[in-house]
Amino acid sequence: MKITLLVIGKTDAGYFIDAVSEYQKRLEHYIPFEIQVIPDIKNTKSLTADQQKEKEGELILRSLQAGDYLVLLDDKGKEYTSMQFAAYIEKKTHTVAKRLVFLIGGPYGFARSVYDKANEKLTLSRMTFSHQMVRLIFVEQLYRAMTILNNEPYHHE
C-alpha cells in the first residue's frame, strides 16, 4: 500500500516546504508516501465558490486511480487521537490494496462529486487551519503514527 496526500495548489512559504520535506523524508523509512499536487485553478476571480469547487472537483477525480481509497480531510470528519490514528493507519495497511489517498481540498471545500466518491472523512482538528498548515500537521501526524506503530520514542503518552 502507498499513502498519497493529494493537495490543491503548491506551497509558497519556504518554512512549510522545509518542514513538510523533512517529515516526507522521515516517512520514507516506514512506508511508501507521496504528495501529489493538483495545480491551482486559474482566473478564480470570475468564478463563484461553487464553480471553483466544481472545477477543482473535476481535477481531483481525474487524479484518482482505480482502487484508490479516498479519505477527505474535512472539518466534519471523524476525529482521532494520535494513538487512534496510528491504529487506523495500521488497519488500512491490511485492508487497502493500492493507494490510501488523503485529500486536502481548496479554499471552499469539496464539490458534491468529491464527497460522493470519498470512502470516509477525517478531521485533524475542529479548529480551522490554513491549507499550508494542514499539510504539515498531516505529515507530522502520519510520521507520529509510524513511530507509534514501531514502538519508537517520538510519541509520549
Automatic annotation (TrEMBL):
Keyword Cytoplasm: yes
Keywords of this entry: Cytoplasm, Methyltransferase, rRNA processing, S-adenosyl-L-methionine, Transferase
Catalytic activity annotation: pseudouridine(1915) in 23S rRNA + S-adenosyl-L-methionine = N(3)-methylpseudouridine(1915) in 23S rRNA + S-adenosyl-L-homocysteine + H(+)
Assigned GO CC terms: cytoplasm
List of residues binding S-adenosyl-L-methionine: L73, G105, L124, S125, R126, M127, T128, F129
Root EC class: transferase
EC number: 2.1.1.177
Principal place of residence: cytoplasm
Listed Pfam families: SPOUT_MTase
Compartments in which it is found: Cytoplasm
GO MF terms, alphabetically ordered: rRNA (pseudouridine-N3-)-methyltransferase activity
Self-association and partners: Homodimer.
Family named by the database record: Belongs to the RNA methyltransferase RlmH family.
NCBIfam families noted in UniProt: PRK00103.2-4
Function of the molecule: Specifically methylates the pseudouridine at position 1915 (m3Psi1915) in 23S rRNA.
Protein name in UniProt: Ribosomal RNA large subunit methyltransferase H
UniProt source species: Dysgonomonas gadei ATCC BAA-286
